[in-house]
Records
---
Amino acid sequence: MTPDVVDAADGAPAAPVHNGLIVSRAYTDASRTSSAIVTLSPDGSGQRQVTQPPARALDDRPDWSPDGTTIAFDRTDPQTGTARLWTIPTSGGPEHQVSQLCDGGIADCANEDERAPAFSPDGKQVAFSRSWGALDPSGSHQVQYSDLYLMSPEGTDVQRLTFVTNDKPYSGAVSNPSWSPDGKQLTFEYRTSATGQPANSRAIYVVSADGTGLRQLTPWELRAGDRADWSPDGTRILFTTYPAGPDNAPGGGIYTVHPDGSALGALTAPSNTFYGTATYAPDGTSIVFAQAPAGAGTDLYSMRSDGTGVARLTNSADRWLSRPAWGTAEAAPADPAQAPDQPSAQAPEQPSGQAPDQPSAQAPGQASEQPSDQAPGQPSEQAPGQASEQPSEQAPDQPSEQAPGQASEQPSEQAPDQAPQAPQTPPADTQQPAAAQGEASIDQPQPGTESEAESDAESESDE
């Protein structure tokens, strides 16, 4: 069934908020071997590089602290291909690596990868994705286990939140968490591997902050992925779809859905365009998103929350700006020693396939009106609360009781049910890259990774 056309936002935040800076990922070289975190004003002006990654390192998936003073991000090591979590003050300054979960001496730390940090609304916790374990012996480079974890912003009080792959090793990658405004739920992407059920697909899931109530929010055939975002009033969840095919393939779109899975609708009309991660402004009236013509680099665009009024914010496709997040931070004072990386605001420009200020009445017809309610492989003692509503349509060839992850014939005997304690000494990363984590390098995608352009010529998000 065709999704509903999306109406204007239903509500507004309880108190006035400041639409501050936008943070994004941008490549720092023409060959796209290194990327940094940048900030810019809501009109696209004042682009400023915040992080200084080592050569060939990839800084990606930024998120704001609730008070706007800190940016969390992940950094992929060019030697190992694995990522670790970092923070940096919004105004710039020393970068700080968050403590890693385990040292390198035990099996649970093999190919360990931590990425996609997300601050809770009260700033007391950070959700992130962690992948670890042996690589798939079939040669796909799919890592054995992948799930969400919670910790304090300092890297302490680590706890495992989901057990999606606990009994289904090599079934896929869990990544890109996002908190509801009240801090009671999170969305995340589950991207299945070649041995997953269904194979090589992706969907958005919802789980309560205590690990219960795991349920599938979007149907497999819609191929929703990357980081979803909750509207500030909590009534809608914003997400992007990625068609099967080559990196940066056109044909996806930006959608919203109610947290209970109802009112699925498209904000963008079908076009020869790639859409990347989208996120709400703090006041809920606008959306910023990544977009590119087929085969070209991404830039940032904005639109109203109902999909009208599309305007181009940046004109720097050689930098592939992507994975934006909109915070409340005021613009940092100009640093006379550092000139802006990009010219100020771009003139509004309309992407192909959509007229300005026109609601997207043509919604892609491939989505079912009610997404599947199927939760991936969740142990019976964990996350007992399943959604009470039955979706109206089941994904193709998907049995109603069957969990998406398919177990490997060589599961690990050391799948941890408890999160390892954060050590004082970081491990030496000498293992082969754990490619199944959310999106590895964009220009060099690996099997099992998640990508933003699936993205960028690279991947995406993610990666």
---
Amino acid sequence: MQCSITTPFQAKAPISTRFWAAKYLFAAALSCGTVSSAFAQQDTNATTATPSSLIEYNATYYVTRQGERHGEAQRSLQKVGDNTYELSYRSEIEWMVFSDEREESSRFEYIDGDVTPLDYKLERTGTGPDKTYKISFDHAEQQVFSNQSKYAVECPWNPDYQDVLSYQIALRKGLANGETKFSYPIIDKKGNTREYQFEVLGTETITLPIGNVETIKVKRVYDNDKRQAMVWFAPSMNYMMVRMFKGKDGVEQFQVELATYTANN
């Protein structure tokens, strides 16, 4: 079921070119599809985070397409208050004559293993129209608000709602608990509802800029076979996301690989 905005935002029409369409998808999919690990640690002998806490970290990823590097992405998790965290993402990508820069963040509460989103923000600049999206969750009034309207989003309330970043914390926790299938009700950047589904495919040893890593391979489940998205997590690093692949009709759109990582223990 789709939520709706009472006063829809009238955005500028995108540049009409197949290169820009592919470029925009390349960057947008990275920000929304990447799954990060809030509990990641490089020291495999370190104590795993307890259900009541998250490990703050900074990570850098190389973004490539068909073997050529087109940019970098940075992710970080910071504690900003009692039981409150902010998961942030930033990317700078160049492809052909096009550029895309974006900053994305989710502020959420984490209590006894439960992830409760508070607000989400995305700012995008570069080739084409600049855009800013903001979503906030009023749990007391059971309403969702978007900067695209002065009214609340017309949407039945679901206490399990996540935004397009906060669900990633819940997914990592599920993997650590041995779960193999996942489903999350999502409020996206425009205030629409979506269902994100994932399933574990198995284990695989992969080679990264940081060396060989034993991983768990996870597939995003779509309603058709045209799109493909795979994510690899490293159990030895407390399920850090170390690689992500995005494709369409069997053709690679982009790949992301872990380049650097620092845990703030």
---
Amino acid sequence: MASPVARPWGGTGLLLGTGIFAAWLATLVLALLADPSGWTPVTLALVVALRTYLQTGLFILGHDAMHRTLVPGRSRLNDGLGRLALLLYAGLPYGRCRRHHLRHHRVPGSRRDPDFRRASGDGALRWYARFMGNYLSLGQLVLLLASWLAVGGGLMLLEPGRALAVPTFWVLPLVLSSFQLFLFGTYLPHRGEGCTASGRHAVRTLGYPHLLSLLACYHFGYHREHHAQPTVPWFRLPELRQRLSDRHLPGHGHGDHQDDDQGGGPGLGPGDGSRTLRPGR
């Protein structure tokens, strides 16, 4: 039986990933070296928004690498780029993040889920604090602070006031990005106490139009689809959403478990007329 997204995506993920890496680095360097004194508030806000979006893109690349879909079929390159993406994002350790994320896919909404526990309730701030605490350590915070201070100190040698560019164009986008990922990738799709008839945790999809979904969080809001087929990369989620909609996928359910190495999450069961999707070579 053909899988919901049948065509292989080959090097598309690597190509898009390279673009995100390059854009993140280029905008960071340009923003740090620019003189924003003559910028209007709108220009400043747009630059911060762009930096935030690209910062989020780094985590999305790391996320796809966790599911071995950033560079399908080349696990060493895939994992290497995933490590780089998470290191640049916030000094995150790839191995630990991957273990946590695959556990989230295996047991969403349970006591063992590192991203969500029902004991947290629906309080967004408390949930956000717990979520960040599971991924950030004191060592990572020290690494980030040291990096920011080193770059800021270097900029001060060029011009005393230029160090303000570090919190404006590097620190602030990271903080905003963490809220973006939490809101569209965890809180909105997983909030509430809803369960399926089988007792599984109900995962929601945010039904945004294609462009809004892309701008919101790289289609991460198509979350039920992602849990159903975690081997589908971010840029193919709209197609998967459409295909599963055409097949009348049950609204909130999960099927059988998939191979842990490919995501460990609940997939579409045989009764849905589809098989576990694996990336094209």
---
Amino acid sequence: MPGPLPNPAKGRSRHTRARASEQRKARTGVIALPAVCTDPVPDLPPIRDWTDAEVAAWESLWTGPQANEWDDSFVMAVAMYVSHTFAVLGKQASAWHAQEARHLGDRLGLTPQGMAALGWQLPPSAGGQLVSLPGGA
């Protein structure tokens, strides 16, 4: 799920940067993610009011290692992940919310299973601590 290919006709964006990770994967079969993503954090979709904790989680996710492989087409999926996860942790969700949060986490490479399926590997310095969510998740 690497996203769209770079478009040389566009200016600087997540779509146009060189994907060195794809070249590394071709050689090794594994993408070694950088420890942080230095691309600008996209704005949260203005579909509802977001809490301060959700905004902090959003920023943490978009600066984490996995965000290096996301492009702008991932904005809504990450927003849904944040929304579902906070609903589950706030005990305001049904079972399908929990299931959807789990599936989104896998697809976004935020779980060990998801990272393995995508062929991603965290750098040793990341230590697996990517985002602080309420409830210790």
